[in-house]
Amino acid sequence: MTEYSVLIGGRAGEGLNRAGMVLCHLLQERGYHVYLYYDYPSLIRGGHNFSIIRASERPVFAHRDRVDFLLAMNQETVERHRGRLTEDGVLLYDDYAVHTEGGVGLPLERILKEVQAPEIARNTGIIAGFCCAAGIPMETLEQVLRREIPRGIEANLAVARGVYAVGNTLRQIPVIPGKRRHPILTGNEATGFGLLAAGLSSFIAYPMTPTSNLLHFLAAHADRYRLKVVHPENEIGVMLMALGAACGGERVAVGTSGGGFCLMTEGLSLAGMAEIPVVIVLGQRPGPSTGLPTYSCQTELHFAISAGQGEFPRLVVAPANPAQACRWSATALHLAWKYQVPAFVLVDKNMAEGAADFDPGGVPAVAPAGPVRWDGTGTYQRYADTGDGISPWLAPPSPGQTVKVNSYTHDERGISTEDPALTARLQEKLQRKGAALAAEVATMQTVLSTGPADARTVLLTWGSCTDPCIEVAGMRGLRVVQPVVLWPFPAEALRAALSGSGQVVAVEQNVTAQLARLATAEGIAVHGRILKYDGRPFSLEDLEERVREAVA
Amino acid sequence: MTGTTLVTDAQNTWCPGCGNFSIQHALRAVLLEMASEGLPLEQVVLVTGIGCHAKMADYLDVNSFYAIHGRVMPVATGIALANPDLTVICCAGDGDAYAEGLDHLIFAAKRNINLTVIIHNNRVYGLTTGQYTPTSPLGFRGRSTPKGTVEKAFNPLELVLASGGTHVARGYTRKQPMLKALIREAIRHRGFSFIDVLQICATYNDPHEAYDRLAYPLTGHNPGDFDAACRKIREWDYNREAPIALGTFYSVEEPSFEERFRLTPQSPAEREAAIRSHLEGN
């Protein structure tokens, strides 16, 4: 498989994320699928930022430790990352900021001065250096810059021309013909498209990494989609406002991370009791508490399935990559409204802020959908007891009818009660609704299997660990099993996917093997555990080594 | 909704003499009156918190959201956001709105969202059996403060005025005609309307003798004058004895929050086209 990795690094606040996206577009123009990993500390300026862009013949959502091109905007980048360069790797640096042996220094200071370009154009300078070194023609760069950074384009082009004038091709990245140009989306954006396709009409969130960019994305495009986007006082307000909006007839989602979700749990329980649909996009980042705000983990699985007092049904899906995020966010919203339950899209920083080329064909069709509505006969009862536990939906106003939503144990009309028989009946109704949800979920592909069906060794994984596992398993002939629905727990589908296996090794980004614990609670044997809890995603080299050790 | 009495058949469990009866009576009378003048009652949504006041959601036969402690405002905000044509009325207790949910009260006022907020201010927690609240006077002996509180009450009207509330009033349950007029005026006001209603708790706090003695109707006051409102509001600080003005201290028209979100939802075909165009880079 032809592939190249490029690392660009510098100080925070220098537009490196944007530069990484431009590199993605350039490599896509060469015919490659692209993946971007963005590593940054929790601060506005200073500190070390870097992006690794991997271009590959096949779609990928994982990075390598080794890189073919190292683009250094500062000394620290060279010092930290030089060891990643492959034997024939190319080091390019800004010769004003970096002093080092070997590699190619670019006279960016002189060029910027000559063409009187602003400081931010320094990034364009190093990107142009990369294009020269990789044999990417100036026309391609110009085309991408005009499309992706239209502001100040002339200054950027002048800098690029200055660099081309002094540059040489050092390691040609060949063109792979045939790939169509696709948008490059982050996991957050793909999640947004999925929610929009499922008819999202309101989005309510308090900013918190790693889902703030979902809020920014939907706020930026609110007019395009006639969307109500609100940023309230705190996450308690977010959740309660969302529940009020849902009762008023909105299709609403919220976004947060673990800490914000702590504040949402009382509202979550209210959603359970009062049977109000809502989608929670929960982005995982390492805790406890503030932890590592801008890094990644998979530590909220048990939190998501258990949060909130009392017992009530819910849905939890955990997509592996932007394509899955789009599809399953739409499914989560549809199921939340159909069953009038809270539904989680459990993502993590790697997935939410990582980016990849995205096939627009993967956006589900927009179909009118909603809860079963009241048929208008007799007197409306918000909590009418039905066979499957789903009460017909009605949002006020409806002449002559009263809609009574209630957080207390209530009767079918929604009037509070402490009657033991009615209490038991309500609990059973909620459970029946959960069973109906589980039955529908069981008809879906809740557990995805990749690799030879007869492979004795299986990597059992979830979320953003999935794609690295699939690549590593591919090298060793192993099977990968990914439950994408995590609640209702698809025990039967998982058992079926694992049948014939001899050794099941859980691969997770947490310290207690949360998925393995759920599986073993269902009597499914897990023989090994490969766990990573330093906030960073598995690189392919890293995971390959760990798998080699675990699969003796 | 029977359209005649607006009362459900739920058994009423307020203590005899409870101030909540008066508020229920006033609100019901105002709604019936407004209905006879053309307000469609199905447009009314009552949101309550948790506490004795909140049973109103069970007792009044109107659309309701019996929410959780302290969270009346965000729920009501969500409802108004979804449908700005609804008449959203919030009943909240003093523990509810001033303690557990104070942040939401301040932000609802700041946004000037079109809600009518009626605070059942009995200055004690009733349902949890007699603890002090943010408006209990300094030295109040409750079950959590048997030697008396060592923190002063705050003045909720001053707080709401400072937060941007565009309609600020005080009522008293033993002044029924005025209470009705205040509720009616608050519902009519487009924007955030706030009425702090002094009521007694028949079991844990009954200062009706002092209220009867000190309360007087606000007259000759210009509710469009912020400074005058501020001065009048500060006349009584909820701690020491002072004349207690009843009436509307402040009322001005300003753009309301939910109006900026009055949107016609996209049809599936429009949404589909918008997504396609977006993904094509337009």
Overall description:
- The complex is a heterodimer of chains A (552) and B (282).
- Chain A has 552 residues and is α/β, with parallel strands linked by helices.
- Chain A folds into 3 domains: 164 residues, 3-Layer(aba) Sandwich (Pyruvate-ferredoxin Oxidoreductase, domain 3); 179 residues, Thiamin diphosphate (ThDP)-binding fold, Pyr/PP domains (Rossmann fold, 3-Layer(aba) Sandwich), CATH 3.40.50.970; 104 residues, 3-Layer(aba) Sandwich (Rossmann fold), CATH 3.40.50.920.
- Chain A is 38% helix and 20% strand.
- In chain A, the strands form 3 sheets. In chain A, strands 6-5-4-1-3-2-14-7 form an 8-stranded mixed sheet, with helices on both faces. In chain A, strands 9-8-10-11-13-12-19 form a 7-stranded mixed sheet, sandwiched between helices.
- In chain A, helix 13 links the parallel strand 12 and strand 13.
- In chain A, helix 7 crosses helix 8.
- Chain B has 10 helices and 8 strands.
- The mean pLDDT of chain B is 96.
- Chain B is globular, with a radius of gyration of 20 Å.
- The chains are: A alpha/beta (552), B alpha/beta (282).
- Strand 15 of chain A pairs parallel with strand 2 of chain B, so a sheet runs across the interface.
Brief overview:
The complex is a heterodimer of chains A (about 550) and B (about 280). Chain A is an alpha/beta fold.
**Rg of Cα set of chain A:** 25 Å
Structural class of chain A, by secondary structure, is alpha/beta
Question: End-to-end distance of chain A, in Å?
Answer: 26 Å
Query: What characteristic shape of chain B results from the CA principal axes?
Result: globular
State the name of the first-level CATH class of chain B.
Alpha Beta
Mean pLDDT of chain B: 96
**Strand portion of chain A, in percent?**
15-25%
Q: Largest interface, per-chain counts?
A: A-B, 63 and 55 residues
Structural class assignment of chain B: alpha/beta
The fourth-level CATH homologous superfamily of chain B is Thiamin diphosphate (ThDP)-binding fold, Pyr/PP domains
**Multimer state:** heterodimer
Q: Outline of chain A, from the CA principal axes?
A: globular
Helix content of chain A: 25-40%
